[in-house]
Design a protein that fits this description.
two-stranded antiparallel ribbon, mainly alpha, about 500 residues, 25 helices, 8 strands, about 55% helix, 2 domains
């Protein structure tokens, strides 16, 4: 039985004519690849922004200077969860008196981060901020570091495209890191080695490149950075808690004679940031995130050398990465993480998320969606940060979670509070239209690429029509079939990759 009545002759003739998609512009494959890796999903609006800036490379350079990019939509989010504005001591007090428990505050921080990824015009800065929040990981959960976790994220965002040595100093001496890895309670009499060990193993030179004496001396260097985690949550430097005396770590030596160890801490951290092993570790992690899971050593070596030659500046490394043949040949080789998938779905479907007014508002429910797909953003429970390799996320369970999320959003069913979805009829560029032209249009809108024969076939099977079927505004595909049709695009391999 046909899904729609026969149309008048004039409509039929119109539908028979080739209908070009009205999506403009459609970026080249190489441009789409660069924009996709350094954003949370190419949209028609982002593609137009790329063209307006003079092309993908010019857009990338523009994005590397985020302070010059107006970002009102992201700034408006600062008022959506008022608890994020409070200082560490204030957040601790609000937790203690039951006003806002730490786990609630951190859930709101995760939501704020996700909404920034959807709305921000500073896409490269947001992507790199996420990278560094995984590398210098402090979980966003209900542990005591929640008091300073928002501040910590702001610090990493401010350094995300700058100097790694300055970022490392700011991160390792930050109260959130001190609380999480116990440096906040480390003293000269009882140096705690947790932060020192992770600093060497995870944040800088990597496992196998240091010994236990290095860890012990690093711990002594870092003593003195304190937080009162039992009462006031105040953070300060306490000279009497600093362990003085000669130290030696991986070629760094210092008499460490001053009771005020802040300067020796900074010199030590800058030394580690400039260590060749740190350069190798960071170069490889950047290549795994932005190129492929198994980057060739030759690429890692080149990026590490650029990093050292430019005094740990991050922008030159990113420029060298995107200019490399390895990057240009890596299209389709990286899988979106669960949070990336959810964010990209909001962007692709053009969902307008409003200020939350209820617990089940979309701006709040987005966190539950991420959990349903497979991972809480910034909630990785270990200090090594969430994995960036495909193997962690290319699983049947993740696939099923993504498919459920895609379908519920394609139908506009959930979350549907304080969110506006596109009307089904608005997806077609004109009526009547042949189904194959409709699929081509949707492919350009949702995937920013031409529809392949396999995609067209899948769409035909999803809604039970042929490629030359004439679609009108009252056709069954528009009235009832759009959730299944839209989901077909979001469930495609092209959408799962970035």
């Amino acid at each position: 039985m046909p899904l729609a009545p026969r149309q008048p002759a004039d409509e039929a003739q119109a539908a028979e004519r080739p209908v070009a998609s009205r999506v403009r512009p459609l970026l080249s494959g190489s441009a789409r690849h660069l924009i996709s890796r350094f954003s949370y999903g190419v949209t028609p609006g982002l593609a137009q922004q790329v063209v307006d800036r003079g092309g993908a490379q010019a857009w990338f350079e523009w994005q590397l200077q985020p302070s010059g990019i107006k970002d009102r939509a992201a700034a408006e989010l600062n008022d959506w969860w008022p608890g994020l504005r409070y200082s560490g001591p204030q957040a601790g007090a609000r937790h203690a008196d039951g006003t806002e428990p730490g786990w609630v505050l951190m859930a709101n921080y995760q939501r704020w981060v996700l909404l920034r990824r959807i709305k921000s015009r500073r896409q490269v800065q947001e992507v790199l901020t996420e990278f560094w929040e995984h590398h210098l990981h402090v979980p966003a959960n209900g542990e005591a570091s929640f008091t300073y976790r928002k501040s910590y994220g702001d610090v990493l965002r401010s350094h995300a495209l700058g100097s790694f040595e300055e970022m490392l100093v700011a991160a390792i001496t930050h109260p959130a890191m001190g609380i999480y890895l116990d440096n906040a309670v480390s003293t000269s009499k009882n140096p705690n080695e947790n932060l020192a060990r992770e600093l060497l193993e995870l944040h800088t030179v990597g496992r196998g490149n240091h010994d236990e004496d290095d860890v012990k001396n690093a711990a002594r260097i870092l003593t003195g950075w304190r937080v009162d985690i039992w009462k006031t949550w105040n953070a300060w430097y306490e000279p009497s808690a600093h362990a003085v005396g000669p130290v030696a770590v991986l070629g760094f030596t210092d008499p460490n004679a001053s009771q005020d160890g802040r300067e020796v801490s900074r010199r030590f951290l800058r030394y580690l940031a400039r260590h060749p092993k740190t350069a190798q570790r960071l170069a490889r992690k950047l290549a795994v995130r932005f190129v492929r899971d198994d980057p060739p050593q030759s690429l890692v070596d080149r990026l590490a050398q650029v990093y050292l030659d430019h005094g740990t500046e991050i922008r030159p490394v990113l420029r060298a990465l995107v200019a490399s043949a390895e990057f240009k040949a890596s299209g389709g080789l990286k899988v979106r993480t669960p949070a990336d998938d959810v964010v990209a779905s909001y962007r692709a479907l053009g969902v307008k998320v409003k200020r939350p007014t209820a617990d089940n508002s979309a701006a709040n429910a987005i966190l539950w969606q991420c959990n349903g797909v497979g991972a809480s953003p910034l909630g990785w429970p270990r200090p090594d940060g969430m994995p960036q390799a495909n193997g962690a996320w290319a699983t049947p369970a993740r696939l099923m979670g993504s498919m459920r999320t895609h379908y519920s959003m394609s139908g506009g069913w959930w979350p549907n509070v304080d969110a506006r979805y596109r009307a089904a009829a608005s997806w077609a560029p004109r009526y009547p239209i042949r189904f194959e032209a409709f699929v081509e249009h949707l492919s350009q809108v949702l995937l920013h690429r031409r529809a392949s024969p396999a995609l067209l076939q899948a769409c035909c099977q999803a809604v039970g029509v042929g490629p030359r079927e004439r679609i009108t505004r009252d056709h069954a595909v528009i009235k009832w079939g759009m959730p299944r049709l839209l989901t077909t695009f979001l469930d495609s391999p092209a959408f799962y990759s970035r």
